[in-house]
Structures are given as C-alpha cells and as structure tokens.
TrEMBL record:
<dbReference type="GO" id="GO:0051082">
    <property type="term" value="F:unfolded protein binding"/>
</dbReference>
<protein>
    <submittedName>
        <fullName>Uncharacterized protein</fullName>
    </submittedName>
</protein>
<dbReference type="Pfam" id="PF00226">
    <property type="entry name" value="DnaJ"/>
</dbReference>
<dbReference type="GO" id="GO:0005524">
    <property type="term" value="F:ATP binding"/>
</dbReference>
<dbReference type="Pfam" id="PF01556">
    <property type="entry name" value="DnaJ_C"/>
</dbReference>
<dbReference type="InterPro" id="IPR012724">
    <property type="entry name" value="DnaJ"/>
</dbReference>
<keyword id="KW-0677">Repeat</keyword>
<dbReference type="Pfam" id="PF00684">
    <property type="entry name" value="DnaJ_CXXCXGXG"/>
</dbReference>
<keyword id="KW-0143">Chaperone</keyword>
<dbReference type="InterPro" id="IPR002939">
    <property type="entry name" value="DnaJ_C"/>
</dbReference>
<dbReference type="InterPro" id="IPR001305">
    <property type="entry name" value="HSP_DnaJ_Cys-rich_dom"/>
</dbReference>
<dbReference type="InterPro" id="IPR018253">
    <property type="entry name" value="DnaJ_domain_CS"/>
</dbReference>
<dbReference type="GO" id="GO:0009408">
    <property type="term" value="P:response to heat"/>
</dbReference>
<dbReference type="InterPro" id="IPR001623">
    <property type="entry name" value="DnaJ_domain"/>
</dbReference>
<dbReference type="GO" id="GO:0042026">
    <property type="term" value="P:protein refolding"/>
</dbReference>
<feature type="zinc finger region" description="CR-type">
    <location>
        <begin position="150"/>
        <end position="228"/>
    </location>
</feature>
<keyword id="KW-0479">Metal-binding</keyword>
Amino acid sequence: MRVGTYTGLYREFHATGTSHSRDYYEVLGLSRDASSSEIKKAYYALAKIHHPDMNKGDSDAEKRFQEIQKAYEVLKDDEKRALYDQVGPSAYEQMGSGGDAGPGFDDGGFGFPFSDLSGMWSEFKENFEFDPAENIEIPVELSFMESVKGCTKKVEYNTNVRCNLCKGTGAAPGAKAQVCKSCRGRGSTCFSKGFVSFETTCSACGGEGRVIKENCKSCYGVGTFPKLKEVEIDFPPGVKNGETLRLAGEGGAGPRGHPPGDLFVKLKVLPDPIFRRQGSDVHVDSSISFTQAILGGTVQVPTLTGHAVLKILPGTQPGQKLCLKGKGIKAHHKPPGNQVVNIRVEMPKTLTRRQRLIIEELAKEEVESETPAAAATG
C-alpha cells in the first residue's frame, strides 16, 4: 500500500487531547486482522440491526447507526485503514478536525529529508481525497453453454443505495447546507508542528466543505442506506472463466449525492461433461469402432450448435485429432474458433465365433505378408 511509505512520519505522532474515541474495530465487533469481507459482513449486519427505523423510540439508535457508518467508511478503505492502524482512533479523528499534533509530534522522527516534503504532501493528499463511493465485487457462476452463447441473469448483492427521500443529499426537504466550521469550507484541515504542516480530508464534513443543518429523517444525514440490491446482467457470448466484467454505476451509492461506484462481476464457468475450451477452440472426444478406423466411415459428433457428421478416413489412428473449422467459440467480434475432435478407437471385449475366424484369417495374412519381407532382408 502506498500509505506504507509514510511509516516514519507517524512513528512519533501521539494525540494529546483528553477525548477518548471508541475504536472502530470495537464498533464493528471485529479483530484488527479482519478481512475486507468480514468488515463488510459485520457492517451490513449491524446497520440492519441498529438502523433508527428498526428502533423507533430509542433515542440512541441514530448515534449508534452513525458510529457504525463512520467506522465502516474508514475500515473499508485500505489506505485509510492503514493510517488509522498506525495512529489510533483519537489521533485519526484529531487529524480530521484540524487539531494540532501536539508536543508528541517529533520533527526529528520523520525518517526522510525535508526536501522531500512537498512531493510527499501532494501524494498524501492524493491518497486521502474524499472517496465518493464503494466499488463492489461479486462472484457469478455460469454453465459452459451460458458462457459460450451468452445469457441474462439476475444477481443480488449487499450495498449502499441512494435514499429516495433526500435523493442522496442527506438533507431534510428544504434544509440548506452551511459552511463547515471545522474546515471553514475548504474540505480539508491541517495538523502541524512548527513550520511543517500536513493536510487531510476534514472528518467533520467528509471533504464537502459544508454541513447539513437538518438531517434527512429517512437516512439520518448519510444519504444512503444498506440494502440487498438486484440487477439484471447481460453476459455477452464467449466470456471466459476468471474474467471480470465491469458494470459502471452499479456499485455502492455515493454519499450525499456523489456518483455511485462500479460493480465488478468475477466469472466462474463450470466445467462441461462434453466440451473443453482452449482459447477460442473447443475440444470433444469421439469414439469409433476399430473397423471404422481401418475402413473409414462417418460418425456424428456433438457441436455447440447441435450434431454434425464427421468423415472418418481409412487408417485413422487412435488419438488422431480432426478439425471442424468455424465450429468453435465466437467472442468479442472475433472470428469463431474451431472444434477439435479427439478420436478414440474402441476395441471389442468379446467376439462372435465368425468374427474371431475373420480376424484370425486377417492375422494369418499379416504374418504371411511379413515373412517374405523378413526373408529378403535376412
């Protein structure tokens, strides 16, 4: 993570305020090594339980809900989480409210030359700009034929959706936004020591530069709320196992009217009992009798569009590969691949008396035809 380059900066940072902020991991009931999926699962479970609409008459419900939302907004973001893990809850909130780093901020503990500060400041700001919305990644399974021919599927996933009452602004109808007193409308605040200053997104307004005087009664000022969302996805023909498709704007709703994130769909194509894919080619096995292999003939083979008749030439060998041109997979406006037929020759396990006599006669002729050749070479 890019934030790791700032380890020297935060090593000597200590908050000096008297306020005790509740740990975000504790808020979500997680250990500090929780995975991203565990963080998301805990958030959706708690948000559903503590949403004020589910706790009417409980005056503390809104406060708990906003605390859960705040913890999730930090821990879901890898870079914000890394910073939070290094400085702790009190220092993290102090950085976002314009507080001074205090006497514990040691100028000598930076671990980098002061000539690098301006470039580092720019990178720091770039990493911690307001994150408008959450991108969502979900797995989807397709059968082999669905992946080849394309299909339409409805999928469900947990995400934040826009509040219909306030249209995502977080404000009550008719309420006006005011200039944020913490950052004075700049959207960012500074923490400093001596002549060195660092800038970060204002936690009071979330980088907006303004605060809402009266919160929406439906979403309680967030502009979004967690919900199970359903979308219908058109999968194009020829998609592959492990491929990821992007659906712009179908991710989490952006807080307070910001653009939504994207939905990323990672495909898992299930194996087929008949067909095997190699690039744009498709492979199948076809069994023929030993007499067909010797004399030639025809055989029906399955294809992606039905059955086709394949000509077997005399003398076809076991393991020989025959090609049906243009019968493979067509994808992304490219010409279709081929179908490769792997020949298997089946040998009879039992013979009738007549069949055995015929084969014995054939074997006798083979021996007789080989004997003059052996004598000539001898």
